[in-house]
Structures are given as C-alpha cells and as structure tokens.
Amino acid sequence: MSAVRPTKNVVVFDYGFGNVRSAERALARVGANVEITRDYDKAMDADGLLVPGVGAFSACMQGLKDARGDWIIGRRLSGGRPVMGICVGMQILFERGIEHGVETEGLDEWPGTVGPLKAPVVPHMGWNTVEAPADSQAFKGLDADARFYFVHSYAAHDWSLEVTNPAIRAPKVTWATHGERFVAAVENRALWATQFHPEKSGDAGAQLLTNWIETL
C-alpha cells in the first residue's frame, strides 16, 4: 500500500481499552504519523483521532470518561474535526448500550441501542463481507466481496437517525449479517466508525484507513 501524502498526524487515543499498537502499525502502514496518547492537547490538535475499543460497553465508557475522552470527542466533532471509532469505540457513539441487563449511557452522537447479537454462534469472530452504499467514501476502491475481521457479541441493530435538512449530508450506513443484520460502519461527516477491525483486516482494512486519512 503506497503512503498517503502529505503526511497527516493521527492520535490513537489511549484510554485503556483497545488494541492501540495494532492500530498504530496499521495507520503507519498507510503513511500516517501516529502517536498513542491520552494527552488532551495532542488529541485535540491532531488531524485525526482514532478511538479503539475492546471489552464491555460500560467499562469502555468509564475509561473514556476518566481520560476526558468524551469531552475531547465532543469538542472535536463540534468543530468538524475527524474522529474514527473502532469496535466498542463505535458502539459507545450510540445513545446507550445494554449488556447482561445493565444499561449504560453512551456518547449519544447517534440515537439507538447497542444490544446482544442474536446468532447461532456468538461471538461473531472472523471474516465477513459488508453491504456498503454505492457512494461510500470509506469503502472506495474496494470490491463488494471484500472481507473484514469482526470480533463482537453486541451490535447496533437499527439505524433511526433521519436527516430532513437537504443542506446536511445524510450519514452513510454500511451493514453486515451474522445471524441478523447489524450496523457494520457509519460515515457521518467528520465522524466515521466501524464495528469490524480495519487494523486486523489486511489489505481491505488498509484501504479503508487510507480512505479515512485522505479526508483529514
């Protein structure tokens, strides 16, 4: 994969939940200048902020708040500054999450609830295709049969955000199916997110990260 130029500065936000080293290597592979940190100023000043996430929704939210990540994400997005969430880093962008009967407030960037994935085999672990919109920027340059790596037991099953103002670009929602259909990725102006792990998805994941870097 050829490097992206000019070089963009990306912070992988280190709040204790996420494969930060894998994300760092994947972003460096596509030409970004990457730093792993929870420093407020560096996270605010970076061209792009990547928020990984693994584990429980509630624990990730608490870790994010402890590191002021909720404040940083909100401030960046209010100024149109790019943010990308991965796996649970995507789930916490929704209004709430329910795990083992426990309901936790998310960042509420999008309405909706993240809940248990209903499938014959859970967790959903392995490679899967996605259904991306034809005009998706995230999946630009990728074939329809491109496969991405998923590891999750919870998902957002519905998308209810409606945009009625024609001057505002509607979010592009990508879907995948494992037992049931669920949200696999979202492109919402400065905010992108994926349920799968692009940093573990080989060349397809590298192309998606390249596409994100090109928007910074």
Strand order of the largest sheet: 2-1-3-4-13-12-11
CATH superfamily: Class I glutamine amidotransferase (GATase) domain
CATH topology: Rossmann fold
Largest sheet: 7 strands, mixed
Structural class: alpha/beta
How many domain regions? Answer: 1
Distance between the termini: 18 Å
Roughly how much helix do the residues carry, as a percent range?
Answer: 10-25%
CATH architecture: 3-Layer(aba) Sandwich
Series of H and E elements: EHEHEHHEHEEEEEEEEEH
CATH class descriptor name = Alpha Beta
* Average pLDDT metric: 95
Radius of gyration: 16 Å
Spans of at least 5 consecutive residues with low confidence:
none
Strand tally: 13
Classify the beta-strand content into a percent band. Answer: 25-35%
Provide a count of the helices: 6
Shape summary:
globular
Subcellular location: Cytoplasm
Main location: cytoplasm
Pfam families: GATase
InterPro entries: Class_I_gatase-like, GATASE, Imidazole-glycPsynth_HisH
Task: Characterize the structure shown.
The protein has a single domain (9-213), classed as Rossmann fold. Helices cover 24% and strands 32% of the residues. With 216 residues, it is of the alpha/beta class. The relative contact order is 0.18. The chain has helices at residues 20-29, 40-45, 57-66, 69-78, 88-91, 202-213; strands spanning 9-13, 33-37, 48-51, 83-86, 94-99, 102-105, 110-116, 124-129, 147-152, 154-156, 172-178, 180-188, 191-194. Strand 11 and strand 12 form a beta hairpin.
